[in-house]
Amino acid sequence: MTTTVRIRLLWHKQAQFAGYLLAERLGLARRHGVEIVCEGLDFSLKHVAAVLAGATQMAVASPSHILESARPDDLRFVLAIQQESPLVYPARKADGIRQLADLSGRKVGVWPGHEDLEFRWMLARAGVSPDAVTRIEMPDTVGPFLAGDTASAQMTNYHELHVVEAALGHDGLTLFSAADVGASLLKDGLVVDRRLTERDPQVVQAVVDAVLEGWTIAFREPERAVEACVAARPDMTAGDQRRQLADIRALALRGATLTHGLGYPDPAHVTRAAEALRAVEGKAVVHHATADPRFWQAAPEAFRPRSFS
Questions:
Q1: Structure confidence at residue 141 as a pLDDT band (50, 70, 90)
Q2: Helix and strand element counts for the chain (H, E)
Q3: Do 60 and 126 sit in the same domain of this protein?
Q4: What's the chain's average pLDDT?
Q5: Last residue of some domain: 181, 212, 234?
Q6: Are residues 114 and 198 in the same domain?
């Protein structure tokens, strides 16, 4: 009997999720009787909300998403491929924006649905009241920014930023990063229904093993990953997918990957998200059990490398 596990992705299918797409395409969990199905973003029921509603068993989401959810105790953080925030916030130098304080009184585009905790924490850490900036929720932050409707916008350095730099050039932009003020928050991680980890731990283990194997293949054999990504999202060129995969690789090969190995769900990411919530919203959350490294620790060492040289 085969068990199907649905993974709700954080965005549309692309190289950002290459390891997941390879695990699905190659059937890497089938040897353990598990079939992985990757689902693209659904704005009506996003990532952790889909897990809590029972629509999916897993989701690619962040520790912040877990802690800001309706029931954080029912979710577990079991993998982290990227080990640093990929988010940047570009602004036009021609608008006189050189520092974060220059965003005061201006509009900034952010993704809808509790996606702006890092941005608000970044402002607070820089001494700028988050309320001094008008946050405009929009699924497409690039279009309004290019049109001049917002002074800045939330973007990833592996996707949207490339579009903006192609249109406006790099030299005319000021790039703000939360890391510059110690406010970086992890974006992508694998989140699992807590009940599944207790009821069917072997299923969770099969998925974790397959996803880690998928990412190991993606980083060691990038063209196989590009082929899978193009098949999953043909509206993006192979060149775009290849460039994005290289950016994701750079985000993965740092931090806890170098000290522990690929995919380590570093509890420090959860602690930082909790710190941001306290600082920005005055909200205290119990998070000591959120990160669950058991499945990562039990995965084959061959799929937990510290480098890909």
A1: confident
A2: 13, 11
A3: no
A4: 96
A5: 181
A6: no
Cβ count near 11 (within 10 Å): 15
Tokens of 276: 């941001």
Q: What is the pLDDT of residues 171-191, one digit of tens each?
A: 999 999 999 999 999 999 999
Q: What is the DSSP letter of 151?
A: S
Same domain, 72 and 150: no
Q: In this predicted model, what pLDDT tens digit does every residue of 87-119 receive, in sequence order?
A: 999 999 999 999 999 999 999 999 987 799 999
Amino acid at 125: R
E strands, the chain, in order: 3-8, 34-39, 58-61, 75-79, 87-92, 107-110, 134-137, 152-153, 155-156, 173-176, 189-193
Same domain? For 130 and 249 the reply is no
Amino acid present at 135:
R
Number of domains comprising the chain? 2
CA 269 to chain centroid: 12
Last residue of a domain, one of 144, 165, 181: 181
CA dihedral 100, 106, 110, 115 (to 10 degrees): 60
Domain span at residue 145?
Answer: 87-181
Strand, helix or coil for residue 61 = strand
Residue 122, judged by CB atoms within 10 A of its CB (0-12, 13-18, 19+), counts as buried
Q: Is residue 308 part of a domain?
A: no
CA distance 196 to 87: 31
Do 206 and 172 lie in a common domain?
no
**Same domain membership, residue 200 and residue 294:** yes
Residue 33 CB coordination number (10 Å): 12
